[in-house]
Amino acid sequence: MKHLAYAPEPRQLIWSNLSLTFYAREVRKYVVYFIVLLVILFFMIPIGIIFELTTLKNLVKLLPFVKPVASISSFRVTF
């Protein structure tokens, strides 16, 4: 079971530790945007390439032993 606690009162906070300038917030925001963009590019491009290589037509070209299985009509319908 999780233990819940009330938030501290405003006078218990050290407000000087919470200050962050507008410029610092904007820089952090754009750094995060850039990191997200890099993650998308480095994950989606390889996934797209792998997806293109694994289509049934390309699999038959790359792996000739798959041809008998690919020629079964019910197998083709499922993909």
TrEMBL record:
GO molecular function: calcium-activated cation channel activity
Any GO CC annotation of this UniProt entry: plasma membrane
Record's keyword terms, sorted: Membrane, Transmembrane, Transmembrane helix
Transmembrane portions of the chain: 30-51
Keyword Membrane: yes
PANTHER family on file: CSC1-LIKE PROTEIN ERD4, PROBABLE MEMBRANE PROTEIN DUF221-RELATED
Protein name, per record: Carbohydrate ABC transporter permease
The organism of origin for this protein: Saponaria officinalis (Common soapwort)
Taxonomic classification: Eukaryota, Viridiplantae, Streptophyta, Embryophyta, Tracheophyta
